[in-house]
Amino acid sequence: MAVSLAFANLPFQFRNVKVVENPLCFGLAPTQLPFLCKERRRLSSSRTIIIVQASSAPTVEDGSQNETDAIPTPKVIIDQDSDPDATVVEITFGDRLGALLDTMNALKNLGLNVVKANVFLDSSGKHNTFAITKASTGRKVDDPELLEAIRLTIINNLLQYHPESSSQLAMGVAFGVEQPKQVDVDIATRIKVKDDGPDRSLFLVETADRPGLLVDLVKIITDINISVESGEFDTEGLLAKAKFHVSYKGKAISKPLQLVLGNSLRYFLRRPTTEEASF
Asked: Which residues cross the membrane (predicted)?
């Protein structure tokens, strides 16, 4: 799955999503996902445009499928780059996804408006895309915690309506009917920084997926005073792939600072998890 961003004081982009009536991700309590438990404003009515570019065999959001088919790789993309006025979300799971009306409702429960929906087909399957804005402002999502809530809400719906996807999603470890394979973080993690013009750099990260990863990546980058201008965050099965346009004081980041950024992220992503209260 995949994603793009815009953050408070930082422009950013994303794309593709799914929804549930109760958007708490994977059945976690509000105390476990505080960013999902913010006070929600009453949503203003909005017009949703649904464009169907091609038809396919009937599929529904209730998880019905041919059990003899190979399980496709689920993908969720959050794109902050392609549309200046909206966050674009794209969801793909072979040809098994339907209209995703529950997903759109779940997004609205997060205080979002789905201003446009689109479905298209290619050799990889059916792609459902949504252009979403914040209901309170009519603008694209600029909060990394809300972007992560969008991503987890979509994945939660995939697990609910397509339980067979649990073997292909990191969140299936706790909430799936079939356990996914464990991904070696050392092997999966790849970090690269390259020039993206005179005023910014392109920062690429690929690693094992987990809840909260998008928020953590942005925090690590901004903690060393690097600005995240825009980007995309993709969830592709058990892997997460992020692409961030970054700068330091309005300029592309220098080679020494690139080294600091890369080492900081490698340490964070590869360190073993430990109990905070171990004494």
From this structure: none
